[in-house]
Amino acid sequence: DQQVKQNSPSLSVQEGRISILNCDYTNSMFDYFLWYKKYPAEGPTFLISISSIKDKNEDGRFTVFLNKSAKHLSLHIVPSQPGDSAVYFCAARGNSGGSNYKLTFGKGTLLTVNP
Amino acid sequence: KAGVTQTPRYLIKTRGQQVTLSCSPISGHRSVSWYQQTPGQGLQFLFEYFSETQRNKGNFPGRFSGRQFSNSRSEMNVSTLELGDSALYLCASSQQGISTDTQYFGPGTRLTVL
Questions:
Q1: At a CB cut-off of 8 Å and minimum separation 6, what does B87 contact?
Q2: Which residue of A78, A102, B35, B85 has the lowest C-beta tally within 10 Å?
Q3: B108–A93 CB contact, under 8 Å
């Protein structure tokens, strides 16, 4: 059972435009969400996170939005740059107890930003 | 600070063999977690070690094991290799652990089982 889903395996956008990457989750115990970026032959790099007590977190060109009622989060990149081309993983973590506190990852979305 | 390092970067083994992968965390980080990445399953949590003790475990068979040393370096062992074990194995470190801290990943070890 996939608890974190990234339904778009790939996304292609033009340089300068907005990139929107989406993520859905099913486990209501998740209360902390992260986005990681991964280039080929490298490990994932932490990008931005959001706690469930917030609905938005911004860091430079990157903004993450959380809709708890819909169990949905999205990552906005504005403006998109060719160097943003990578695989983006959404991850979720629950509060302590049981197995919810480990990071559960989506399968990733390959973002290609065209010059 | 130096990042998380993993050795070797690439490995080729045959079915039935065993393999040991190594991970050196960021200096000062006491938690080391291991993940398996495959095209079909994405990134899946294997286990976490903290202060030389396995603290959390994912849903993998007992062929997958690990340990952590007093200097926080960690090793992961896979015995009786199967074709399906071919994957990128990622190690991540954090100061206090997966339940509270952001994890920092190494570049991974690409294991191919023939």
A1: B36, B37, B38, B111
A2: A78
A3: no
Alpha carbon distance B102, A64 (integer Å) = 16
Residue B108 CA to residue B104 CA, distance in Å, equals 12
Determine the residue type at A93: R
C-beta of residue A29 within 8 angstroms of C-beta of residue A78: no
| Residues counted in chain B | 114
Q: What does the angle CA B83 – CA B87 – CA B88 come to, to the nearest 5 degrees? A: 160
Query: How does DSSP classify residue A28?
Result: T
Q: Pick A102's closest partner by Cβ from B58, B105, B108.
A: B58
Give chain B positions within 8 Å (CB) of A3.
Answer: none
What does the pLDDT look like over B20-75, one tens digit per residue? 999 999 999 999 999 999 887 888 999 999 999 998 888 899 999 999 999 999 99
